[in-house]
């Protein structure tokens, strides 16, 4: 018989190199496709997790705000409503028109049953201190931003008093 050694063929080395390059290219393509699929899967999981974290943070913030508003509401009876006046949500002015009052501070004032410019305009310095204490403002913030003066101007403009 005859013996055949594939390495002795004239193009055997070339065939080995071609097979090595083809197998390397196929490995690269398969790895690339697999990696892209894994990346898409992980990105989907990441976006779902991020949205869950955002929902949790919003829920936590809402719960904290509710606790603060409940705590403030429980102390509303400490104010002298005989002096500053009674009002309801139906009578409410947009207290955010006063510089320094944002949406959450307005909610805090509402939880104290302060809804109108008239009520704020009627506050004495003692009432202002008490409101600041109850609502947990920075010290002297209400005086510094002159909420009472602003409320008086807005009340006069609104009702032409």
What does this structure look like?
Keywords: Membrane, Transmembrane, Transmembrane helix. It comes from Larkinella bovis. The chain crosses the membrane at residues 12-33. This is DUF4332 domain-containing protein. With 161 residues, this protein is mainly α. It folds into two domains: 17-71; 75-159, no CATH class. The protein has helices at residues 12-74, 81-84, 103-111, 117-121, 125-135, 141-144, 147-159. The model has no long low-confidence stretch (mean pLDDT 89).
Structural descriptors:
161 residues, 2 domains, transmembrane, membrane, transmembrane helix, DUF4332 domain-containing protein
Overall tally of structural domains: 2
Cα-based radius of gyration, to the nearest Å: 36 Å
Poorly predicted segments: none
Question: Judging from the principal axes of the Cα atoms, what is the shape?
Answer: rod-shaped
What integer is the average pLDDT? Answer: 89
Transmembrane segments: 12-33
Keywords: Membrane, Transmembrane, Transmembrane helix
Protein name: DUF4332 domain-containing protein
Q: How are the elements arranged and paired?
A:
Blueprint lengths: L11 H63 L6 H4 L18 H9 L5 H5 L3 H11 L5 H4 L2 H13 L2
Summarize the structure.
The chain has 161 residues and is mainly α. It is 68% helix and 0% strand. The chain has helices at residues 12-74, 81-84, 103-111, 117-121, 125-135, 141-144, 147-159.
